[in-house]
Amino acid sequence: MPVYSFLNDAVWIDTAAHEKGASMKNLTSNTETVVGGRRRCAAGKTAWLTLLALTMVWQVLLACSEQALPPVETVRAIRSFEVGDPAAGMKRRFSGVVEAADTSSISFEVPGNVQAVNVEVGEAITKGQVLAVLDDRTFRMSVEAARAAVGRAEVERNDAHSELDRLRKAAEINPGAVSQRSIDQAETQFNSTRKNLRYHNAQLDLARRDLERTVLKAPFDGVVATRLVDPFQQVALGEVLFDLYVEGAMEAAISVPESEIDWVRLGLPATIRFPAFRDQNYDGTVSEISRVAGGANAFPVRVIIDTDNPRIRPGITAEVTLLLDEGQDETAYLIPTGALLAGPDESSGFVFVFDPATSTIKQTAVTFDGVRASSVIVRSGLQTGDIIATAGVSFLRDGQKVILGSR
């Protein structure tokens, strides 16, 4: 059976593979040569030399590729989460308003016409500073009238006392000249004038006090929050004219739904943020819990803000985060469900903990106890401050070098 072989420009035709004994002639000739029944066409030797050279070059290139440098490991970026949420309760955020912890609504203790108002809204005041003044002419006249009444009462008392002394002396000189009834009547009259004098003295004191109350003074150092009065305005007894507050001591007023109020307690820690400036969180403590629900069946709760930052002013919006106590184990933590790699059973698994010193991750065994919302409650294996991978954990391996990406 003929066998055809193509090599470059040489063509071989095996016509008699079984024949032997022939010798090769004219190896260098480009003409057809017959060797033992095999016919060769053109440039055989050149083809073999070309093949040999290509083979040697290929082997050299292959040897060089086997000595190439080892591949560089790719450092992967991971999405991370810092462990720090204890699973001892539910985190709830409530929107509220900042209010001054110490406030006072003040008014005149006497009615009258406002003669002057000396402060404006937002003005800082000191204790004893005059805020407003009433027209005091009527009150001065009341004082004068009361003083005159006291003078008349003093005269009446003195006259009654003189009459009583006269009758007593007459009875001593001549016992029969003055009856006992006359003496008793004189004593009654004297006692009556004494009481009348005390009454008018009291009236004089009241008139003087009312006169003093025509001047409204600040009860403490603070700031004017609101002003509800203008000059020449007629005001009634007890009508609120100013709202004052003590600068520095602030509270956040929030409303807690009836379904969660049982988990709120006095002294419960809180974290407070202010949308007006989100550069910092502030600590707080629950200071008041109302026992009566307000609107929408929510209970008013007040949280003391532990700072005297002057940027925190009454009326700005506050976001209060409370960790509502449910009596669970305080050593457990909440982590995202995406951070957990399946383990050998339903209550165990693995997470990858980042080591800042080596920039590697370590596969760490954990035990967990249920899921809350989008978080897993981990009972053991982690501690506060651990940084764990939260996405693509099935593609990670123990000891892998990584960099921290978004959180």
- The CATH H-level superfamily of the largest domain is Efflux pump adaptor protein, beta barrel domain
Largest β-sheet summary? 6 strands, antiparallel, barrel
Per CATH, what is the topology of the largest domain? Answer: Elongation Factor Tu (Ef-tu), domain 3
Which geometry do the CA atoms define?
rod-shaped
Strand order in the sheet with the most strands: 7-16-19-18-17-20
Which percent band covers the strand fraction?
Answer: 35-45%
Q: State the order of secondary-structure elements, H for helix, E for strand.
A: EEEEHEEEEEEEHHEEEEEEEEEEEEEEEE
CATH architecture of the largest domain: Beta Barrel
| Whole-number mean pLDDT | 82
- Number-wise, the strands total 27
CATH class of the largest domain: Mainly Beta
What oligomeric state best describes the polypeptide chains here? single chain
Task: Return residue spans where pLDDT drops below 50 for at least 5 consecutive residues.
Answer: 1-43
- Percent helix, as a range, is 10-25%
Using only C-alpha atoms, the radius of gyration works out to 53 Å
Instruction: Write down the domain tally.
Output: 4
Summarize the structure in short.
The chain has 407 residues and is an alpha+beta fold. It is built from 3 helices and 27 strands.
Looking at this protein, list some descriptive labels:
6-stranded antiparallel barrel; Elongation Factor Tu (Ef-tu), domain 3; conserved putative lor/sdh protein from methanococcus maripaludis s2 fold; 5-stranded antiparallel β-sheet; 38% strand; 3 helices; 407 residues; single chain; disordered N terminus; alpha+beta; 4 domains
